[in-house]
Structures are given as structure tokens and as C-alpha cells.
């Protein structure tokens, strides 16, 4: 129900703002403001998104809960979409989501309404890449590479002494 109200209310708000602002400053300035806010917003969303990705990587490498950086990244992505949408109301909401304090408040608001059951991370080494598929539990040394080969006589070689092209000489 709330989604339907949003789909009806937001375009009406945008149309009203376009008419009011366009009547006050003129069509050219109104369109210029919409284009400039889209360009500026995309640039800000990109830089804020890069910071959020750095925080997300840091939380993974430090084995911390990545919920907050993920939520910030999602809000920045949503802000970028709102800023690229033409309109004054969507631009105001988009720019406000680019402010870290507003995102933090929105995250805390959502945190009280969402219950995370668990978070876990693998702390030990991953699966042994040298584990044999045939004999589980048997491991091979780190210097062993399994494979098949066939010896080729020098005379039977198709390149007859010429480089194969796979390496540079």
C-alpha cells in the first residue's frame, strides 16, 4: 500500500515543484538546475561509493560485521539513482542520502526494525587445494602438480626448431 502511495505522490510532488520553480525562475534555469544536479550527484555518488567499498573491504579483511558498510553502499546506490532521476524532490532526497550523518540515522532506524539472526565468517584456512578427490583425508605436498605427459622426439616435433609463438625470444 505504501509503495502505491509513493508511486502516486512522488510524481505529483515533482510536477508541482517543476511548475512552481519553473514559473519563478524560468524554463531554461529550471532545466539547467536539473542537469547540473544530475552531474554533480553522479560525481558525489561515485566518490561516496568508492569510500563505502573501501569500508566494506576493510570490514571483510578485519573479520567485522559488514552490515553497516553494505547498508551505506545500498543507500549511496539509491541516492545515485534518485539524483539521476529528473526532479527537485528526488534530488533533495538523493543529496540527503549522500550525507554520512543522514545515512547513519537511517541505518539506525532500519536496524531497530530488522532482526539479523546470525553472522559468521570462516576463520581458518580454506579447503586444501591439494586434497585428493579419490582419497579424502589424504593430502599431497605443496610441490606436487599432477598431470600427464608424452615424450616427443626432436625429429617428430612439428616446429622443427622454430619458436612456437607462445613465448617471446
Explained architecture:
This protein has 169 residues and is mainly α. The chain has a domain of 83 residues. It is 60% helix and 0% strand. It has five helices and no strands. Helix 1 packs across helix 2 and helix 2 runs parallel beside helix 4. The longest helix is centred in the first third of the chain and has 35 residues. The N and C termini lie far apart (70 Å). About 5% of the residues have low confidence.
Quick structural overview:
With 169 residues, this protein is mostly helical. 60% of the residues lie in helices and 0% in strands.
Average predicted confidence as pLDDT:
81
H-E string = HHHHH
Residue share in helix: 55-70%
Strand content: under 5%
Q: Provide a count of the helices.
A: 5
Low-confidence stretches at least 5 residues in length (pLDDT < 50)?
A: 130-137
Q: How many β-strand runs?
A: 0
The coarse silhouette is elongated
How many strands, what sense, and barrel or not for the largest sheet? none
Radius of gyration: 29 Å
Amino acid at each position: 500500500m505504501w509503495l502505491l502511495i509513493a508511486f502516486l505522490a512522488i510524481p505529483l510532488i515533482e510536477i508541482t515543484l517543476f511548475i512552481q520553480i519553473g514559473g519563478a525562475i524560468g524554463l531554461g534555469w529550471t532545466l539547467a538546475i536539473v542537469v547540473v544536479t544530475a552531474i554533480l550527484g553522479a560525481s558525489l555518488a561515485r566518490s561516496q561509493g568508492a569510500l563505502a567499498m573501501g569500508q566494506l573491504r576493510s570490514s571483510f579483511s578485519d573479520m567485522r560485521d559488514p552490515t553497516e558498510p553494505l547498508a551505506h553502499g545500498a543507500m549511496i546506490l539509491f541516492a545515485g539513482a534518485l539524483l539521476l532521476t529528473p526532479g527537485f524532490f528526488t534530488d533533495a532526497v538523493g543529496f540527503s542520502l549522500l550525507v554520512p550523518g543522514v545515512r547513519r540515522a537511517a541505518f539506525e532506524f532500519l536496524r531497530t526494525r530488522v532482526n539479523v539472526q546470525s553472522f559468521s565468517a570462516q576463520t581458518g584456512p580454506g579447503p586444501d587445494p591439494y586434497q585428493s578427490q579419490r582419497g579424502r583425508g589424504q593430502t599431497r605436498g605443496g610441490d606436487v602438480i599432477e598431470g600427464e605427459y608424452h615424450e616427443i622426439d626432436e625429429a617428430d616435433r612439428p616446429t622443427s626448431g622454430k619458436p612456437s609463438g607462445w613465448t617471446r625470444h
